[in-house]
Amino acid sequence: MYADMVRRMLYYPDRLPPDLPPPRWAGRCEEVRLPCEDGVDIHALWWPEPEGTPVILFLHGNAQEAYSWSLVRRELEPLGCRMLLPDYHGYGKSGGEPREESLYMDGRAALAWLAEGGMSGRDIVVFGKSLGGAVACEISQGRELGALILESTFTSLASVARRLFPLLPPAAELPEKYASIDKIGSARCPVLVIHGDRDELIPVSEGLALYDAAPAPKQLYLVEGAGHNDVSSVAGPSYAQRIGSFLERHL
Length: 251
Prior knowledge:
Strands 2-3-6-4-7-8-9-10 form an 8-stranded mixed beta sheet, sandwiched between helices. A two-stranded parallel ribbon has the order 1-5. Helices cover 31% and strands 20% of the residues. The chain has helices at 2-10, 66-69, 72-76, 100-116, 131-140, 161-164, 204-213, 231-235, 238-250, and strands spanning 12-13, 30-35, 41-47, 55-59, 63-64, 82-86, 124-129, 147-151, 191-196, 218-223. It has a single domain (2-13, 31-250), classed as Rossmann fold (3-Layer(aba) Sandwich), CATH 3.40.50.1820.
């Protein structure tokens, strides 16, 4: 019973009609399918230009779908990178149902698709936002990547359960763990942690704890006055500038 309740409160997938084209604001993207280990295909958006540049694998939060999240392409376009934006199981045009292990499969499927396209680990920047940060920590363990970027994410689901699931009994066992704090130490790449200092959903203390646990080289970027969903808009142009400086230093 509690497992179903937690999943209903954790995942908010929006579905998309199979024949719906990408929105105009997504720009010059391609729709691709990524095969997962369980036989499910997930849907993703791929921006192949500028050719020959590093790739940002963007792992989005727990709500909406890739078409809505494609606005992030505009925010990150000044970085001059290609980008892959996959949906999770049960989101958008993807098959299956969202679960912790299925989201990890989605992240691994995205890395495998990039590798098959000739992109080595050092060419890939894994960027996880909120729930996507937990997926990013999972798939980055022990991998030689260009960088790992975590924005507005948590140390574990249990650490923020009271905020996310206020109706859940205190003694209820969570079916999903997302224990990023136990995984980030296994990252083998530079780490950038971004967090709003007024995040009402995932307290800034969560981001600080992840930063402390991350291996060097690492960098902390706290956005003054930003909450959970407005980090880039509050930061303004300095958002892409700070991320760009980090990538230029380490890629």
